[in-house]
Every structure is written in structure tokens, then in C-alpha cells.
Amino acid sequence: MALIDSLIGATGQWVSGSDPDASLGSPLRWLRKTSSYAAVNRIIGMAIPFAPRNGFRVIELRPGYVKAQIPLKGNKNHFGSLYAGAYFLVAEIPGGVLTLFDLGPAYTPILKEMTLQFLQSANSDVVVEFSLDDQTVEAIKAEADKTGRAAFELEGLMYDKEGNHVATSIGHYRVRKKGFSAARN
């Protein structure tokens, strides 16, 4: 766990220093951005091998924001649209990623419950976006530092390639503060 925690911490610092808008017009900034996302996706693959096998990947990450994608290819249901399990995968992992990178490796995210509301079929790749504002991050940290855990909710909005809002997820998370002891606090 110490190695993963160190990787998360170092990658978080690297990602937070990258420019999400960097393009090939600024090759060094673009390289930092793309290598940051590659490192995040590699860590996810080490922790959850199921994710890269299904084509899941983080495509944008910055403080307070994560955007991830799941391809239609390899994740179709019997109607040819995106399989419900793929929606769950793309909705669940980014909540943990956002929590780990915004709170830091001293806090462990745990999904307690998730609901998915399907609005229409997705016949293409799907992206999901999550955000946490600074005030919420600080409130989560304060509660976890005080009690050893904190509960919070994340809403994910899922879109197909055409920009249609195809589903919404509501994740109920809890973070645990690593090494917390009520006697010390």
C-alpha cells in the first residue's frame, strides 16, 4: 500500500501541474498532460485490472474535476448499445480517482451506494464528468480528520459522442482517514 500511496501522491502533484488545455502547439506542456493521464490510467489498471480490459480511461483530470470515457466497442449489450455494466464502471471509478487525487492518499474512498438513471441508449462511446469544489473537499477532510470518516455524494453526468445526456449517476461515498485513532484525536 505504501508504494501505491506514494505513486498516487507523486502522480497527483504531476497532474495538478499540467495544463488540461495544452496542445501540440506547446509540445512540452502537451507531453506533460498526456503523460499525466497515462500515469493515472496505469495506476487505475494496477488497482483495478478490470478497468483497462474494458477500455476505461481517464481523459481529463485537474483539481476538483475528472472526465473519463468507456468505449462502445467491447461493451455492447444484446441491442448493440452500451451495456449497463459499462455505465456503472465509467460512473464508479472516477469518483474514487477524484477523491484520491483531491483528498490525497491519506484518505481511502469507499463506494457505499450508487444509482444510475438511464435517459436514453448510448450507441457510441460514453464520457462522464464529476466535480468537487474546494469547500466540499475541505469539509470532507475536516470531518475525516475529526472522526476518521466522512460521507459525501457525487453526481456524474454521462454523455454520448453527440453530446446527448444519456445517464446520470449518484454515488454515495465514504472516505476513511488512514491511521485514524479516536484516542489521538
Q: Order of strands side by side in the largest beta sheet?
A: 1-2-4-5-6-3
Helical segment count:
5
| Morphology | globular
Distance between the termini: 24 Å
Query: Mean of residue pLDDT?
Result: 86
The main β sheet shows up as: 6 strands, antiparallel
**Helix-strand sequence:** HHHEEHEEHEE
E-strand count: 6
- Portion in helices: 40-55%
Strand content: 25-35%
> Which stretches are poorly predicted, pLDDT < 50 over at least 5 residues?
none
Alpha-beta content class: alpha+beta
Describe this protein's structure.
The protein has 185 residues and is of the alpha+beta class. Helices cover 40% and strands 30% of the residues. The chain has 5 helices and 6 strands. It has a 6-stranded antiparallel sheet. A hairpin with a 4-residue loop joins strand 5 (149-160) and strand 6. Helix 1 packs antiparallel against helix 2 (27-47). 29% of the residues are buried.
Mind sketching the topology for me?
Blueprint: H1 2-16, H2 27-47, H3 50-53, E1 57-62, E2 65-70, H4 84-103, E3 107-118, E4 126-131, H5 134-147, E5 149-160, E6 165-177
Helix pairs in contact: 1-2
